[in-house]
Design goal:
The complex is a heterodimer of chains A (about 600) and B (about 200). Chain A has about 600 residues and is an all-alpha fold. Chain A is built from 15 helices and two strands. Among the domains of chain A are: about 30-200, no CATH class; about 365-515, no CATH class. In chain A, strands 1-2 form a two-stranded antiparallel sheet. The longest helix of chain B is centred in the last third of the chain and has 32 residues, at about 135-170. The relative contact order of chain B is 0.15. The chains are: A mainly alpha (about 600), B mainly alpha (about 200). At the A-B interface, helix 6, helix 7, helix 8 and helix 9 of A face helix 1, helix 2 and helix 5 of B.
Amino acid sequence: MAYVPLADQDHEMEMHHPHSFVEKYVWSQDHKVIAIQYGGLAVFTGIVGLVLSLLFRMQLGFPDTASFIDPNFYYQAVTMHGMIMVVYLLTALFLGGFGNYMIPLMCGARDMVFPFLNMLSVWVFLLSVIILMASFFVSGGPTGGGWTLYPPQTNLAGTPGHDMGIVLMLVSLAVFIVAATMGGLNYVVTVLQYRCRGLTMMRLPLTVWGIFVATLLALFAFPALLVSAIMMLFDILLGTSFFMPAIIESGSPLDHNGGSPILFQHLFWFFGHPEVYIVALPAFGLVSDVLSVHARKNIFGYRMMVWAIIAIGGLSFIVWAHHMYVSGMHPYFGFFFATTTLIIAVPTALKVYNWILTLWEGDIRLNAPMYFAIGFIFTFIHGGITGLFLGNVVIDLPLSDSYFVVAHFHMVMGVSPVLVVFAAIYHWYPKITGRMFHEGMAKLHFWCTFLGTYAIYLPMHYLGFLGVPRRYYALGTTDFIPASAQDLNTTITIAALFVGASQLLFFINVFWSLRNGPKADPNPWGAASLEWQTPDTPPVHGNWGDSLPTVYRWAYDYSVPGAEQDFIPQNTPEEEGPTMNDDGMDKEA
Amino acid sequence: MSLFKNVTAKPWERKGVIGGLEPEGAFESPNEKVALSIFLVVASVVFSLFTVGYILRMELPDWRPLSEPTQLWFNTALLVLSSILFQWARNITKNDQEKNIRVAFFGAGAFAILFIVGQLITWDNLQNAGYFLTSNPANSFYYLMTGLHAIHLLGGLWVWSKSSIRLLSGGEPKDIKLSIELCTLYWHFLLIVWLVLFALLSNT
């Protein structure tokens, strides 16, 4: 029987060929256009989140200099910054952006399995962003209850945005979850069903593995956020008491009675902790590929890396209560979650060792993407090790409400994934745009970002040890915090403003190079994975021209002894590379 | 290739096309069915979390159990009938026959609509008897969970109505074979969810 790839059995694909500008770039069903729409919207939202962080850092560094930053605005900025960065920037960018772009190309498919659903996903995501942004313009402004949205505080009159702001936030999250589910079903089914001939699961690049498992986490963790959002909306709008206890507000009792705020915390963190890995796993995958390509070596311990991704994904569902040690829990309960938290460090540490061993004796090429990838190893180790401290109940209790925690999670899931985002954008920029970026400017961008973020977060650990509480609008005077803490805060703010401003280097580089960058080679880094082997650069609609590729090897054949080049593309037939016998030795040897 | 062989493979050792002429796909089922199955897991997570919330909230002192109306037994029978008719429709198209397909498929949807109407009547009766949404967390959960189940059913009915229109406007049963199969799977799932919910609500 003649071989017809699954993707080509789908005749509907032909009908989706775009004809007009609107079909091509607006109502597009092409995964690459959707990826850029998703990514662009996520980055735009992220810029809003970044500006908000600079504003509240102004208050901390230079108290009361900007008159419009009152306590209400401060809390609203902190809240929106947190939610935007975690959900609307990182989740959307990694899954919607990179997931959409990379999965079909790396799987050798023409598009996602359900292109229409994919298009719907990005438009529903836009709707959720519009609803979120609308909360800046309603009376009372956006919610200021902290990104964790804990009831009852979020819903009480003392909290800014307790009327419309929180409602819009919850509705926006629910809409986002719908978008993420539509996208997520697509990514999972595409990886499972649309791999080209010869591309077994264990031949997939780690990028696909990371995004695949992260998408499964998103599919199974977001429901917890949806459930808590629905129940909280019922409490706010219809007056039920799922989470709201009997409480007195401004001297008068509210209608609520007997609800459990702790129940909300459990539901929220049952989503919240996997969410960390929804952001981290795609970053792990992307950075593995960048490291391997620029070190001219196969990724060290590929199978271990895959299993570590799966193990981290599974374990991430049983560690959530380590975010709740201070809520008051049975000691055995805390013991359990401390144990699972430390166990999850094992596969994570394996991955770190493997990245370092990939670099070991590699033919390292210090291109701009590699700078960011190596930078990520540093920031991730720092953030990860403070995580081991905080995973223990006795250490967490005194540090939980201090800047130590802020420093920890920004290092591990703020700076680290963002460095990977930059590594990945620089790495795949030549394929996506067909142009090269300005190498020098990219490296300058790296040093500003890398050293700048260290200048922000390293001192923050120290502030935490001093006992400086987080979430405070103004420190006031206390016996235990020396006045010099304020100097440190000022320094941090200056560093933050510097890092914020230096991101302009990135945007200038990306947009300037679109027109003025030198034309890119189809495979400038000499990478072996499929996305670099497309007949056109940038890939056109349908990706693969007349026939889909066939895969003969894994994605990491770098510096293979006896091969002509120092890489062998996945779709190179076996005759052209040296063949191996069962012992993994060259047959000729 | 079996799953175990798959995850223990050493990809750096084996070159060449693995799997012969077959395209790489993990499942034989149509993509839509794979997607629906994954969605059903997602929906199960949603319902399970509500159930967990229900059980945890139940332990707090202000919980006053709701005595479920006996009409729910009648509604359950409607949903069972709906599921049976879908299964019948699926069996007909699976054997490439056409006889009675319209009776089975339209009947299945009609019973599902009747189920939702029945649920609404139960809501109305409860309201009239003074069991309001906010009067007790048990009531809140009752309205929330039955409502959520009904919304899922409405989503299924939307797909059902699209296929029904196709069938009415001269479409052949074989054109909607996949749609019938997916509806059947979805209805069985919602029947199981309902039975679990019903057991939970009436035993607590």
